[in-house]
Structure formats: structure tokens, C-alpha cells
Amino acid sequence: MYCLSKVPYDYVLYVDADERLNGNLRRDLKEIVKFMREHNIVAARVLRLNFLSSKNVSRYLFYLDFQVRILNKGFIEYKGVVHEQPII
How far is Cα 88 from Cα 74, in angstroms, rounded to an integer? Predict the structure, then answer.
């Protein structure tokens, strides 16, 4: 929450240190945020693929693992110490 309070923008892309953006999200991020602003959407979930070593295990263990990653910081609060979850 401290870091979010220091961000000068309303919309934030939240990414854990061990996560990476795929090319589609990287390419479309500005359009997604524009759409969210225009339609008063305060949070969006992103499909996350999980890898163990170099093998994609999402389809076996964590299929359809959606996480809130694009958010309007004015409407979000994080609770917890480790693996915090957003409260919208």
C-alpha cells in the first residue's frame, strides 16, 4: 500500500518479481487501461501461466489462474503480509 501511494498514476500494473508479461498484454496494455477508464472499470484480472522449471504446468495444476493485475489504485487495498490479496 505504501508503494501504491507513491505512484503518480491512477491505473497501475501490479507484477510480482517472478512474473513476466506476455507479448499480447505488453502490446495491448495502453488500450486496456483506456477502455477501463472509459467504462469506469477499477480492476482487471489477467490469466497467469505457471511454470515449474522450463515446463508450462498451468494446464495441469493451476488451469485458469486469473489474478488482479491491472487496477485503479484509488479503489484497491491490499491485506496481508505475504501473498497479499487485493480488496476491491
Answer: 9
Dist CA 65 CA 45 (whole Å): 9
What are the tens digits of pLDDT across the range 51-76? 666 666 656 666 678 888 999 999 98
> pLDDT tens across 9-22, in order?
999 998 888 788 88
The grid coordinates of residue 84 equal: 497479499
pTM as predicted: 0.77
- The amino acid occupying position 64 is L
d(CA 63, CA 70): 20
Contact in structure between 23 and 49 (CB atoms under 8 Å): no
Beta strands (DSSP E) in 16-64 are 43-48, 51-52, 55-56
How far is residue 77's CA from residue 13's CA, in Å, rounded to a whole number? 14
